[in-house]
Amino acid sequence: FVSPITAIRRVRIEGALPGDEQRLAQLVKPLQGIPCVRIDPRGVESAVLELPEVKSAELRRNPFGSALLTVKYRQPVAKLASAPNMMLDADGVLYRTMQTFDGIPVVTVPRSGPPTLVTIVGNWQPQRLAKLAAIARDLAPSDVISLQVSESGGVSVRLGSKQVIFGSLDDLDRKVDVLNQRMVTYPNELTEN
Fold this sequence. Notes:
Blueprint: E1 10-14, H1 21-28, H2 41-48, E2 54-61, E3 66-73, E4 76-80, E5 86-89, E6 94-96, E7 106-108, H3 126-139, E8 145-149, E9 155-159, E10 162-167, H4 172-185
Parallel strand pairs: 1-3, 4-7, 7-8
Antiparallel strand pairs: 2-3, 4-5, 5-6, 8-9, 9-10
Helix pairs in contact: 3-4
């Protein structure tokens, strides 16, 4: 399988965003002419993952001269108010992007901001905040949805002129259930002035 017969002649890229196609093409260009078993897929995948908005990358190759690079990107559920190009995905991962996203909740964090390293002790709960941002989009029609995180870690959601105070996100599912029950009883509560 190290024969030139198995050399890569064609690499197809699947899932690339238009703004990332050129970078990906440059990353796979050196694979041309290399026998498939001599290619390190993890090395190529790691290079693809250097762009923070890439969630996953997989390079598959075969001994018949072709390879497939599959790329998946993070999908934002919210963006930071203080850094509009900083997004929060559904897994609670903060990442920088060059894309613009409209119609997603805006998160305001304390002036100290979210931690940049893994938090072992503290009040930053990015996974729960991401879940709440996704839920907020279904609570009521609103031009502007924002989430405010206090210094103590409490969270409130503003839907236009209305505000729902969640406090700690430790028992988020229960709080969302209570809110949903209230919305059934008072369906226009968050939409009426």
